[in-house]
Amino acid sequence: MLTIGCHLSTAKGYTAMGETACSIGANTFAFFTRNPRGGNARALDRSDVDGLRRIMAENSFGPLVAHAPYTYNPCSAKESARAFALEAMREDLERLEALPGQYYNFHPGCHVGQGAERGVELIVETLLQVMWPEQRTCVLLETMAGKGTEMGRSFEEIAEVIARVGEKRPELADKLGVCLDTCHVHDGGYDVVADLDGVLGEFDRAVGLGRLRAVHLNDSKNPRGAHKDRHEVIGAGYLGSEELGGGLKVFSRIVRHPALSGLPFILETPNELDGYAREIKLLRELAEA
Ligand code: FE
Ligand code: FE
Ligand code: ZN
Predict the structure, then answer these.
(1) Are the CB atoms for 122 and 75 separated by under 8 Å?
(2) Ligand 1 center to residue 228 CA distance, Å?
């Protein structure tokens, strides 16, 4: 059975997210580890977390994919911004140990004119300081569209970060992975419409498919290579619409691809809950057809 869900609001707590997920046919979900505008994360309520654990067990959920706020920039040129990202990521990871998990996905950040090489160095430094060998949560770098000076625009850039962390601290190597965002890689120039096998082959050569732990399932409002990062609902954009893209068979290939089988698929499409429920149903049908 496909493991699929969408991004949910944490406003009503963890049990409520589990209930909402079930109500829309999801068996995973994503959520922000804290308010994207910063500020402190709420203290954990044990019974609320236990409620989610129970729901997940009873409904055979797959792993959850927690998302770091977009406001973290671990490779900023400003020391204060880097310090904030570092402190917040460390706290997020500590808190996630008490939650059923097991993924923490983050945007590698923007090098803001310092160059990609410096960007890689700063991201590596951050990861070396926020991770520890016994942590249960796996940290996922998200593939990005390459808007502005965004890092993570190529599989090679992501591979470089993972390799360098592994060289410095081999004991952290298996706690690092990748979350592949279909809108972002398409906007970044990878041809998931016509050549999904080719794209995943490239990923395998650069990073290794074993590192791929989650997929963000989004259509795109822009043509391939636009470096824009604007998500569209499934089937209405340059991936899955008949007019602009390759039609729904593009998403059918994604959810049925053997290299992606068993991974959590997270929708981040512009939808309310009823829209997510429809997309989850559609994608389950595509996966089983
Ligand atoms: Fe993201
Ligand atoms: Fe994403
Ligand atoms: Zn995006």
Answers:
(1) yes
(2) 13
Nearest Cα neighbor of 75 from 84, 66, 63 is: 84
Q: 112 CB contacts (<8 Å, ≥6 apart)?
A: 73, 75, 76, 77, 149
Residue spans per domain, the chain:
4-288
142 C-alpha to ligand 2 centroid (Å): 7
**pTM beyond 0.85, yes or no:** yes
CA distance 12 to 23: 15
Ion ligand 3 residue ranges (Cβ < 5 Å):
229
Question: 243 C-alpha vs ligand 2 centroid, how far in Å?
Answer: 24
| Short-list 135, 52, 142, 141, CA closest to 90 | 135
Sheet containing strand 176-181, edge to edge, reads 3-6, 264-267, 212-217, 176-181, 138-142, 102-106, 64-67, 30-32
Q: With beta carbons less than 8 A apart as the criterion, state whether 140 and 65 touch.
A: yes
pLDDT along the chain (289 residues), means of 10: 96 97 98 79 89 97 96 96 96 94 95 97 98 97 98 98 98 97 98 98 98 98 98 98 98 98 98 98 96
The CATH number, out of the four listed (3.40.50.2020, 3.20.20.150, 3.90.1300.10, 3.10.20.310), of the domain defined by the range 4-288: 3.20.20.150
Integer Rg of the chain from CA? 18
